[in-house]
Design brief:
Elements lengths: L41 H4 L2 H14 L1 E5 L10 E2 L2 E2 L7 H4 L4 H5 L12 H10 L4 E7 L26 H12 L2 E6 L33 H18 L7 E3 L9 H11 L6 E2 L29 E4 L17 H13 L3 E6 L9 H17 L16 E8 L5 E5 L3 E6 L2 E6 L6 E4 L6 E6 L10 E4 L2 E5 L10 E7 L1
Length: 481
C-alpha cells in the first residue's frame, strides 16, 4: 500500500525475511515538517476551537474502513506464472512490469460483482463510521470517472461505471462518511510520476521503463492536480478526507503549496501527514503499527491490514483473528487514535469471505459495547498498556516496549470504561482512580445490574460475576463525577 519496507524519505520501516512478505509492524510514519510554508494551510491559520470543530466527527468515529482496490487485483500477486513478493498493489513495481503491459490489464478489468450497497452495508455492520477508498494508487489507474486522464475505470475498462460515485451515493443513504486515498507523488504509468526504489531500479528516478520518464511538475499539473480537483468537486459533500501517500523529494514546498491552495478551498476537509513539502496535515498515520503510548495531543490513525497485503493477493490467507482485530481497536481507542482497517476486493469486486466474516464478528461486539469506543478519550491510567524494558532493545537500539494484554481503558466526561481481555476472577482492582466512582456495571449486561465497588485508599475493587460475559473483551462501566 503505502511505504515500502525499508528506510526511505526519512521513514523507518522493516522488510520481512520471508520472500518479500509484508510484515505487520511499521514503526510510525515520520515526515519532515516545516515551520513556514509558501502557501499557508488551514492548519496554519485556524484557531484551536475551529480545529476541534473540524475534527469533531473524525474523533467521534474511532473506526473506519480502508479499501485497496484496482487493476492489481487481476494479477493478484502473480506475474508470468510466478508469485511476486511484497504487497499486492505494488506488483507493477516489484515485478518491473512495463507500462504498456500493465495498462493492458485495463481491458480485462470488469468487476461486475461490485455492489456499493453490499460494501457500505458491510462497513456499517462492522461498526465502522467512515470509508476511505483508493481513488488512484501508485499504478496511476483511477478508480473514478476522470476527464483529466483516460487511464481510468470508466474509459479504459469494459465496466464503464464509477464505483466512487456509487459508493458516495450509498454512503449518503446509510449515513457513513467517505474519503479518498490519492497517490499524489508516485505514479508508475504517467510520464514524470515518481517511484520508490525496488529491486534494481536505479537513480535518479527509480523508473524501470522509458515510458515513465518525464517532468514531475508537468505530471502534477496535467494529471494529479486536475484529478484532485475532480475528486474534490464531483461528489457532492464527499470527500471528507483526502489520504495522501509516499511523498518524495520531488514534492517540493512550492509544488505541495499548489495542492494546499486547492485543499484550502474545502475548509472542512481533513487530510493526513503524507502530502510532503513540509506540510504536517491533520493526522499522523502509523502503518501496521500501534504506537505504545499513542501520540498525546495529536490526531492519529493506525492503518492496518487483516492479512499481509493491502491489495488483493489470491494466496495470502494469513488473516488475523477477530480477537486480534478487536483488541487492536480497543488498544488504539485507549490511546486516543482511530483504527483504519483494510479490505482488498478481488478483480470481480468481491470482498474475501474471511474479511467479511471478521468484520461481521467485530460488528457484533461493537453493537453491544460500542459506547466504550465511539467518542471516547484516552485512558486515565496508562501502565496497563505495558512498559519499556530496562534490558531489551528494539531495532533502533532504544528500550523495547513490552505490551501487557490484561485490560485497557477509555473514558468519557462521566464514565470510565475498562475493557477486560483477561478475566481477573471475582474482583477487578485499580490502584488509583483520579475520579470519584459512583457506581459500576457490565456493559454487556442488558439489565446493567450494579456491581459492588469497594474503595481501598485511592483505589477501588469491583466485584465481578463468576463468568466472563465476552471471551474477547468484557467492559466494566464506572460511573464518575
Amino acid at each position: 500500500m503505502k511505504i515500502s519496507r525499508w528506510v526511505i524519505a526519512g521513514v523507518a520501516v522493516a522488510m520481512s525475511a520471508q520472500a518479500g512478505r509484508a510484515v505487520a509492524q511499521v514503526e510510525g510514519e515520520s515526515y519532515t515538517v516545516a515551520s513556514a510554508h509558501p502557501v499557508a494551510s488551514i492548519q496554519d491559520t485556524e484557531t484551536p476551537a475551529q480545529r476541534d470543530a473540524r475534527m469533531a466527527w473524525w474523533r467521534e468515529a474511532r473506526f473506519g474502513m480502508f479499501i485497496h482496490w484496482g487493476l492489481y487485483s487481476i494479477p493478484a500477486g502473480t506475474w508470468d506464472g510466478k508469485p511476486v513478493g511484497f504487497i499486492g498493489e505494488w506488483i507493477m513495481n516489484s515485478a518491473s512490469i512495463p507500462v504498456a503491459d500493465y495498462k493492458a490489464l485495463a481491458p480485462k478489468f470488469n468487476p461486475t460483482d461490485f455492489n456499493a450497497h453490499t460494501i457500505v452495508s458491510l462497513a456499517k455492520a462492522a461498526g465502522m463510521k467512515y470509508i476511505v477508498i483508493t481513488a488512484k494508487h501508485h499504478d496511476g489507474f483511477a478508480m473514478f470517472d476522470s476527464k483529466a486522464d483516460p487511464f481510468n475505470i470508466v474509459q479504459a475498462t469494459p465496466f464503464h461505471r464509477d464505483p466512487i460515485r456509487e459508493l458516495a451515493e450509498e454512503c449518503r443513504k446509510q449515513g457513513l462518511k467517505l474519503g479518498f486515498y490519492y497517490s499524489q507523488d508516485q505514479d508508475w504509468t504517467a510520464p514524470g510520476g515518481a517511484a520508490y526504489k525496488r529491486e534494481n531500479h536505479d537513480l535518479p528516478t527509480h523508473h524501470w521503463d522509458k515510458a515513465q520518464d518525464g517532468d514531475f511538475a508537468t505530471y502534477l499539473h496535467t494529471k494529479a492536480i486536475p484529478q484532485l480537483k475532480e475528486l474534490l468537486t464531483n461528489y457532492g459533500d464527499f470527500p471528507v478526507v483526502i489520504w495522501f501517500d509516499t511523498p518524495t523529494d520531488d514534492m517540493t514546498p512550492a509544488l505541495a503549496g499548489e495542492i494546499v491552495a486547492l485543499l484550502n478551498q474545502h475548509p472542512n476537509l481533513i487530510w493526513n501527514n503524507r502530502l510532503g513539502g513540509g506540510y504536517k496535515g491533520d493526522t499522523d498515520t502509523p502503518e501496521q503499527y500501534i504506537p505504545p503510548q499513542g501520540y498525546p495531543g495529536r490526531d492519529w490513525e493506525a492503518c492496518m491490514t487483516m492479512n499481509d497485503t493491502w491489495g488483493y493477493k489470491s494466496y495470502d490467507k494469513n488473516f488475523k483473528s477477530t480477537e486480534t482485530l478487536l483488541r487492536n481497536l480497543i488498544d488504539i481507542a485507549s490511546k486516543g487514535g482511530n483504527y483504519l482497517l483494510n479490505i482488498g476486493p478481488d478483480s470481480k469486486g468481491d470482498v474475501p469471505p474471511a474479511e467479511v466474516e471478521r468484520l461481521q464478528q467485530v460488528g457484533k461486539w461493537l453493537a453491544v459495547n460500542g459506547e466504550a469506543i465511539y467518542g471516547t478519550q484516552p485512558t486515565l491510567f496508562g501502565a496497563e498498556a505495558g512498559s519499556f524494558s530496562t534490558t531489551e532493545k528494539d531495532g533502533d537500539g532504544k528500550p523495547k516496549f513490552i505490551p501487557e494484554w490484561k485490560w485497557r481503558s477509555t473514558t468519557k466526561a462521566d464514565k470510565i470504561y475498562v475493557e477486560l481481555f483477561t478475566w481477573p476472577g471475582e474482583k477487578f482492582h485499580l490502584d488509583a482512580v483520579p475520579r470519584n466512582i459512583t457506581g459500576a456495571y457490565l456493559l454487556a449486561d442488558p439489565s446493567h445490574k450494579k456491581l459492588t465497588v469497594t474503595k481501598s485508599g485511592n483505589g477501588i475493587d469491583v466485584k465481578l460475576p463468576a463468568r466472563v460475559l465476552d471471551p474477547i473483551a468484557t467492559v466494566i462501566v464506572l460511573d464518575t463525577k
